[in-house]
């Protein structure tokens, strides 16, 4: 994955991230939005491709990104036992306290300011289902109870392919909240939302 040429990233006061590109262009992210680096996109690709099997829609993966206010810098993977797959709803049920203890136990100086819980939609679209929206609401509530200041967002990661080589495409922001790219073998499209299911800006 080719890296986008970012020269400098500065956090300006409360909730404004300024991204200066090498060519001089400046992108400013405000409010809920965040910056997703090429490194993080690469981690997300590796995490999801390793478990994807073509034609098997039911293998969902849950992972989380954490970091400072507007810039995730870690990807957390969870043991498969954390996922209680429910064949009736075709959704992964996730134990929020297990996710939290895992994220908090990671060796880092402080509790992360930002937590983005992502799950995959194998051979699907990156839009939350009714069940997902319910999960967004309830899990944010549970997280805020323990960590009132933590910013909690959600990602839906659609992944398909895997059975033959396809044309590789660099990551592109196709909507305000959606990044799309292709590896040699898989298509990826990831959208981000807040707990109310509203779109959240992502900058790459
Ligand atoms: Zn879902």
What's the topology here?
Layout: E1 6-11, E2 16-21, E3 26-30, E4 34-35, H1 38-49, E5 62-68, E6 71-77, E7 83-86, E8 91-94, H2 96-105, E9 114-122, H3 130-146, E10 151-161, E11 169-175, E12 178-182, E13 186-193, E14 202-203
Bound molecules: zinc ion.
Zinc ion (ZN) binds at residues 91, 119, 121, 129, 132, 156.
Structure description:
By secondary structure, the protein is of the alpha+beta class. It has one domain: Cytidine Deaminase, domain 2. It is 19% helix and 41% strand. The chain is built from three helices and 14 strands. The strands form four sheets. A seven-stranded mixed beta sheet has the order 6-5-9-10-13-12-11, with helices on both faces. A three-stranded antiparallel beta sheet has the order 1-2-3, with no helix packed on it. The longest helix has 17 residues, at 130-146. The model is unreliable at 81-85 (pLDDT under 50). The chain binds zinc ion. Zinc ion (ZN) binds next to β9.
């Amino acid at each position: 994955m080719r890296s986008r040429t970012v020269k400098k990233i500065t956090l300006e006061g409360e909730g404004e991230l300024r991204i200066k590109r090498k060519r001089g262009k400046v992108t400013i992210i405000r409010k809920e939005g965040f910056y997703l680096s090429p490194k993080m996109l690469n981690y997300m690709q590796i995490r999801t491709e390793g478990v994807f099997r073509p034609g098997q829609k039911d293998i969902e993966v849950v992972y989380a990104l954490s970091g400072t206010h507007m810039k995730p810098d870690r990807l957390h993977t969870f043991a498969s036992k954390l996922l209680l797959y429910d064949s009736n709803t075709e959704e992964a049920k996730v134990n929020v306290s297990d996710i939290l203890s895992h994220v908090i136990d990671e060796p880092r100086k402080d509790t992360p300011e930002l937590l983005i819980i992502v799950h995959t939609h194998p051979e699907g679209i990156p839009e939350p289902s009714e069940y997902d929206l319910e999960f967004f609401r309830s899990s944010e509530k549970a997280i805020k109870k323990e960590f009132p200041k933590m910013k909690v967002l959600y990602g839906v990661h659609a992944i398909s392919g895997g059975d033959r080589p396809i044309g590789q495409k660099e990551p592109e922001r196709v909507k305000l909240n959606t990044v799309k790219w292709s590896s040699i073998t898989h298509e990826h499209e990831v959208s981000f939302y807040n707990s109310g299911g509203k779109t959240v800006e992502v900058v790459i």
